[in-house]
Every structure is written in structure tokens, then in C-alpha cells.
Model the fold of this input.
Amino acid sequence: MLFHQKDHALAKISTLSRLPWVGSEFFDAERRLLIVGESHYAMGKTKAEYEEDLLRHQGPFFTRKLIDETQIQNLYKYQLLDNFWQALLQKKPTKSELWRHISFYNFIQRSMDYSSFNGEKREQPNRVDFKNGWAVFAEVVKIVKPTDCIFLGLKASEGFGNLKADKTVTHFDYAYSPKIGNMTPLEGSFTIDGQKTNVSFIQHCSSFFSPQSWNPFLQNRHPDLINFLSAKN
Done:
């Protein structure tokens, strides 16, 4: 699943566990959206099933396969992204077309243990996972150069300042927005290698997420992006 010449640069990021999905027309897009999920989850009702699933997760193309199967081929649902698109565009997108202009990867570089053979596991990323995630994020951004970045989860926002540890960051700001429900979104921007990126952190888009409640925030934060993607949809 090598798509373009930038893959060679992405593959050289030693701390990046899986290659991001980068659409075939992403680098020619007027607005370049990088969607950042949080984690992959390894599952299994037996130890053997869990170890087999974990091994699949370790493949460099796992994230791309996930996007291809859920967003292009529509083989099964991915609630996280279905809810996100409802929040951003207020409608189900023509995914196979839209994803040519999108990039996506998960922030945490190891899979969480969600096995059930020895009790129901619900592992969560720790502080080291998030700190490492920011170092990887900076390297990914240098290659994909997004104009817009939306994090699907608020936990990473607590360490947003870690991005300043990268010496190529020449501009950095952030502000907390009014609460949406009981969640406080974070908005900001940064410049790396001359590319300014507008970034937003929203509630994790799986359970208990209200797309209608978050749409005004995203409309206000990323109007040019929404107009661009709506035209492509």
C-alpha cells in the first residue's frame, strides 16, 4: 500500500509504528486535513486470538488497511469516523472520493489491550505514550504539511505544549473554548518548516458523542476546510 514518493520519507520515521493513510490527491489539495485518532485496540477472546490480532496491528500498513476497509470498501462500520464526518460535514460523505484528499493516523504508537480472555481489559495510554506521540506527530507533520489538523479525542490536548520541544516550531498558540456539554475543546495553531497548521481537539467521537453539538465549533474553526471538502463530496 505504498501510494506516493512521500511514503519513503514516512517509512524513515523510526518511531512511527504504522504508515498514515495519505490520500492520492492529498498533496495537491487546497486544504490538507490530517485527522488524528487516539489508539488502535487489540482484541481477542482467547490468548491466541489476542496475540494474532496484536501481530496484525504491528504491520506497517494496518492503519491504511483499516481506512480502506471501512471508508473505501465499506466492509464494516467505523463509528469513530462516521460520527466525525457527521460533525464536520453534517452528512455522510462520498467516502471513496473524499478520502483522496485526507490523511489519517493514530497518535498512540502501540496498541491498547482490549482482550477478554482474562477479564475485560480496557487499557488506556499512559503519560509516556502521549509524550512519545508528540515527537512522532512533529515528524509526520513535517512530511504531510497539513493546513488543518483535528484530533479525535481531548486527552492529547493536555500535552499540546510538548510540540514546542521540536526546534522547527516557529509559532505556537492555543486557547480553551467554551464547554460543549461537559467537554472543553482546545484550539490552536503552530508553524513547522514554514507551514502553519490550524489544530482543534474535540471529544472522542465514539460513544456519547453528539455530532450536532460539535458542528458549530468545527464550522467556526475550519470554514475553508469544510468548504473545500464539501465541494469534493
